[in-house]
Prior knowledge:
This protein has six helices and twelve strands. By secondary structure, the protein is of the alpha/beta class. It has two domains: about 5-150, Rossmann fold (3-Layer(aba) Sandwich); about 160-235, Luciferase, domain 3, CATH 2.30.38. The strands form three sheets. Strands 3-4-5-6-7 form a five-stranded mixed beta sheet. Strand 4 (about 100-105), helix 5 (about 110-120) and strand 5 form a beta-alpha-beta unit. It is globular. InterPro entries: AMP-dep_synth/lig_dom. This is Non-ribosomal peptide synthetase. Keywords: Phosphopantetheine, Phosphoprotein. One of its GO terms (molecular function) is phosphopantetheine binding.
Amino acid sequence: xxxxxxxxxxxxxxxxxxxxxxxxxxxxxxxxxxxxxxxxxxxxxxxxxxxxxxxxxxxxxxxxxxxxxxxxxxxxxxxxxxxxxxxxxxxxxxxxxxxxxxxxxxxxxxxxxxxxxxxxxxxxxxxxxxxxxxxxxxxxxxxxxxxxxxxxxxxxxxxxxxxxxxxxxxxxxxxxxxxxxxxxxxxxxxxxxxxxxxxxxxxxxxxxxxxxxxxxxxxxxxxxxxxxxxxxxxxxx
Length: 237
């Protein structure tokens, strides 16, 4: 996708969802071909923090722990699968972190609880968003008792709007499944050299300013009573 500069700035400097300050160290752990690297690189550089680049091979849990300790990493992003694996292998790996973000798939409440029980001062965040909306669309901080339900997708970042719509592009009430549409400063400009797909997925936003666009995510979600989003599956399967 073609991502404009303002989408990167919105991700790196949006307030609230993460606190990266000068003196902090953000791990550059994701492949540069994965959109999570946009968060890692530009959040660190635009906020005056350090960027610690991991070795090129995929580390074991023990190697990850050494890297985090030796580099003094305070902020780390992991895919859901790797987060679950490390939580099972050795939860002490996360001891030096101040903020751990994970996502890209459903987070297990059991693994989240295991990490928070071991590190009650750690900020643990579920980060959700497609590449077409520049890494994170919504985030949800996990605290205390998680219960048995799914981990919420949370609420949108600053300068981001989300709509849960039915097949007629009408908003649905809380608790009713609908497709998630995303609008705001995080949207990509288009798919590269794929005009047809761009027209299909990026459509006019009837709820925003004239000329605005929204992205059709294909994700089935519902509003929860607390105003956060719950992921239910895909509309195509």
